[in-house]
Amino acid sequence: MPRPAQEKKLIAYYNPESPISETYRTLRTNIQYSSVDEPIRTLIVTSANPGDGKTTTAANLAVTYAQEGKRVLVVDADLRKPALHHWFNVSNLSGLTSVLMNESPWQNAVKPTDVEGLSVLASGPTPPNPTEMLNSNKMNQLIEEFKAQYDLVIFDGPPALLMSDSLIIAAKCDGVLIVVSGGVTKRQHAEKLYASLEHVNAKVLGVVLNNKQKRERKKAYAVYYGK
């Protein structure tokens, strides 16, 4: 991927002094304060529909945690339409599906990034049964191994209203961030997603409002709303 495209997406890394980067750091702080007694170690970022900005949020949030000195792993759990490997310019020939299929140890599939302390696990080849793979005992074991190695694991999940994959992972994580797109995400879709997450006993930390109106962007880009 050409570097200019990466700079536009990973603004928290390439332009850390920007107002947008500051809002991602504020989001990080809010997450940290949302669960003081039991720190968040695993987190999934999802949305109701495609294009709401979940990958943007997951990637930049991961960068801000790494900038704080944390050991961070960001995982592309969207096994049907992966994108995270483009953001960090890594290969998708091997990834999460390769590990779950016992084709590669996760230590070999995880790749370093230009951000110190931040590693990425691409999705890997698209499997015929992504839901079953994510709901497997192997996935449970993998999450525990990640937690032993990293301070925080962030999953970029698929849109949760289109498939149950994100709900499966959400039930395994310490917290969930819902991303909605201003003026695009329908209220009933967001409410349906929230209800679905509650049904699997997932802990919703809050909602990130993405794509605010242009006249407001200098003030804020991503806004966090507590539960």
From TrEMBL:
InterPro entries: AAA_dom, Bact_polysacc_biosynth/exp, P-loop_NTPase, Wzc-like_C. Its EC number is 2.7.10.2. Keywords: ATP-binding, Kinase, Nucleotide-binding, Transferase, Tyrosine-protein kinase. GO terms for molecular function: non-membrane spanning protein tyrosine kinase activity. It catalyses: L-tyrosyl-[protein] + ATP = O-phospho-L-tyrosyl-[protein] + ADP + H(+). It is an enzyme of class 2 (transferase). Residues 45-202 form the AAA domain. Pfam families: AAA_31. Belongs to the CpsD/CapB family. This is non-specific protein-tyrosine kinase. It comes from Paenibacillus thailandensis.
